[in-house]
Structure of PF00070 family, FAD-dependent NAD(P)-disulphide oxidoreductase:
Amino acid sequence: MERFDVVVLGAGSAGEGIATTLAGRGRAVALVEQLRVGGECPYVACMPSKTMLRSAEARSAARRLDQLGGASAAPRLDGDDEAFRAAVARRDEVSEHRDDGGAAEELAEAGVVLVRGPGRVTAPGVVTVDGRELAWTDLVVATGSSAVVPPLDGLDLVPTWTSDQALSAQERPASLFVLGGGAVGCELAQVHARFGCRVVLAEAGEQLLAREEPSIAARLADVLRGDGVDVRLGVELDRARPSGGGARLHLSDGSSVDVERVLVATGRTPTTDGLGLEVLGIEPGEDGELVVDDRCRVAGQLHVWAAGDVTQKGPYTHTANYQARIVSANLLGEHRTADYRAIPRAVYTEPAVASVGMDAATAAEQGLSARTAVMDLGETARAATEGAGGGRLVLTAVDGVLVGAAAIGPRADEWLAEATLAVRARVPLEVLADVVHAFPTFGEAYEPPVRELAGLSV
């Protein structure tokens, strides 16, 4: 039996970061992974999706080149199929053709023992991988999440994609039905629409991005419709049937849609099945997540930790990286606790949607008396120079400090960092109101609503 200070299950962003950090501090670490080092983000999620979004954005901007003064007339572009192939080629280059060889080499150089295969706890203090026994003093579970495919009538009989499959596919469907109006559904709907695909997006709820500020979600729906996406809210998929090599979909509003392919974007579930955690007396929470304390230690355990999507604290790579730092610090003898009040959320459509903290409705649910203030980004000078309009910033404050912000606008994912810092550090509104922003920038949009919330003259 091989002995390690720490065995990490899952080599995604969290697991890889923890293993590398601990090995760098002299700990004996084994990292167990049955697919790719780096997890999904570099290969079939974050990196390929943002690369495709950038290509789609560039193609959309080229169509407006004359409106932006870059040409006297709109340029003639090549066909959608040719352009899509070029975008896919760039996507695969950025995602290293889904080859984790380089990442695996870096782990070895860092002193981490990489064990390929499915890991399972077979006894207290022991993980077994295809018959290979690894003894541990501390165990870290960082197994991520997997796509949820709902058991809808006939869905298993028609051509479908999960997001992972869509972001590794080579072909461009002529028509696509997107099931789910969360971040993934919205991003991939825009990508395919901008490459000439007929896209229908159905969301069972009354708005896209169910947990986000309603007015921001409504603006995003308008943006997608402007790109040609048929956005249907409050509509569910009742049943699916094969039809002409594709699918005929019957919806809850009585309509039917014929498409070449269905993209299932109905969420993800923590990956805990088959890990043998019951051997340690660990029972996942109601949604399958591992319940952790503020140090990322699994509830009821002294030497079992968890980080990343499996904890359901925020389905983002940056959350996983944050938790990796917390776990690493605690395993190295420090005392670090996590604070999730200011974990940013982003949808990388064009324009982007970004938010942090809570909105007024969430504050009310917590018994807090919140105030909000709104700014139309079209009123900024930068919107005029960029040729961009229709953006919006909503700020929420409680007791003289910012507790939340939500925005839709060009590169909102970047300039919302100011609000993220303000929420995390509990910066007084009076201080925020005294911040000077460069002119002309979208950051200036903060000034009127912050002054309003601070009770200062606008």
Observations:
- Residues 155-266 form a domain with the FAD/NAD(P)-binding domain fold (CATH 3.50.50.60).
